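Give me structure tokens for this 439-residue protein.
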Amino acid sequence: MPHVPADFLPLGEAARIETQRALSPLALGLEDSMIRHVAAEVWALQAEGQEVCNLTIGDFAPAEFPVPAAFLDRLEQELRSGQTNYTPSDGIPELRRAVVDLYRRELGLEFAPEAVVIGGGARPVMFAVFACFLTAGDGFAYGVPSWNTQYYVYLMGCEHLAIRTQAASRFLPTGAQVAEVLPRARLLILNSPLNPTGTAYRAEELQAVCEAVLAENRRRQSDGRPPVILVYDMVYWTLTGPGQAHVHPLALVPELSPWTVYVDAISKSLSATGLRVGWAVAPLHLKPALKFYVGHTGGFAPRAEQRAAAWYFGQPDILLQDRAVLNRGIRERLAMLVEAMSAWKAAGLPVDFIPPEGGIYLSTRFALHGRTVDGVRLATNEDVRRLLLQKAGVAVVPFQGFGLDEESGWFRMSVGGVGRTSLQRGLERLQALLTSIGS
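Here you go.
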């Protein structure tokens, strides 16, 4: 490879100017995910030897939550048998059938295998959905806080229709809020259990939302206008909490089937975030466009992973046993957080939380704004985040990382990447810090 003289590479102000000249307007407006920015700071501290209870990134520590052994064994078999070639653009038929069987068995849904599009994780198929239904200037409706949606709205050049939710509704968009934005919307995305809050829709809550979408689309049918597409992200549905039933649109309002797309993946259900297999289930008349888009962008899942997933979904006894182990570990850690927060709140310390209903997250509020600690006045969520990290070695993500701009003191705590001992030690340090600050 030829050596490029340093004189040829712009530096300083010249580099900034050259960047402005070279990049597209879209690229110039791109931002990194705040979640990854915060996590990178934590990793740097840990690399320096500092003990940090890392409650930031929505991932699983393999030492704590390994991918199921049966799945890995099957994956190795598939790789060694030479299953390393291209796949069809919409995924191998065996996996599409397995997804249909899984949904029929566990959710009572009836889809044809032809309705399924497999991708390399949930993101490629989700982006394909956005690209196939949205044009620049369309209204993109979503609740805040929510995972990374604001970045997708930017990438699609759409109008932000952010539904600013409240703790009173457990940060889930209500039927009334959705109905208010629907006349300007072309697409609505919902997520339950919700990342970042760990809360989940109840049947009556989701039904109100679905009925609002149905009423809007019936009006649009009579006017000949494009419908609102409902995208239901249920990547966390197998992690729904005890006593909580997972609900989804077509079980409540089946008339929405022509306009509803489900998005799912193995990333959370198998604690397999790096084994990229996801899928969308779409109405048959809309599915071909999604298939073509995934194909043109190369958003495929690897063949071996697809074949292993197809086999694994066909082993319900193994699947349910593995799921129980995963859920037990998650609930133990969430229970540790809830127990600590409950005690601190009862003792008058400045904390609050919303009981977890699913996923791997706890919504926690630290009411520290306006306080002064070691001569530093806490004015923003970022100030509070830095305080918890620097003084207690506890890393959390402010809801600003999920599109909510109010300085309300709400944070996401994620338990997938932390062991029990690390969590217990982090809680002890956090209690000492909060006690020193006082009520």
